[in-house]
Specification:
The protein is mainly alpha-helical and 107 residues long. The chain has helices at residues 5-9, 12-23, 28-34, 39-51, 70-106; strands at residues 55-60, 63-68. The protein has five helices and two strands. α2 (12-23) crosses α4 (39-51) and α3 (28-34) packs across α4 (39-51). The mean pLDDT is 93.
Length: 107
């Protein structure tokens, strides 16, 4: 079953895994050493991230290294951009209103 990207990034451990492998590819054992959990628990998080294509495996001998899939995250960022522009406009308007109120209060 394909996982939803929002479900994947809603978990703090999965976000931490993404942050780790954005710096360098890691094996599940190397990831487990960074967290206070078993390799099996890390593997469950890896499966969710892999199912929604946020990470990509690369086989090297007997090891599997997981890489951050920047292209998939970029697709997510493009989707968020439409909302970012909206809230930045609203924050800008709020800044202008607060500046006006502050100026009127000092007169």
């Amino acid at each position: 079953m394909k996982q939803d990207i929002f479900q994947a990034i809603s978990d703090p451990t999965r976000r931490a895994i993404l942050t780790l492998i954005a710096i360098q590819a890691l094996t599940p054992n190397a990831m487990a050493e960074k967290f206070d959990m078993t390799r099996q628990a890390v593997s469950k998080h890896i499966k969710v991230l892999h199912d929604c294509e946020l990470i990509k495996p690369e086989h090297s001998g007997r090891e599997i290294y997981y890489h951050f899939n920047a292209k998939k995250m970029q697709e997510f960022d493009h989707w968020l951009a439409q909302f970012r522009q909206n809230w930045e406009t609203q924050f800008s308007q709020l800044d202008q209103l607060l500046t006006t109120i502050k100026e009127q209060a000092t007169k």
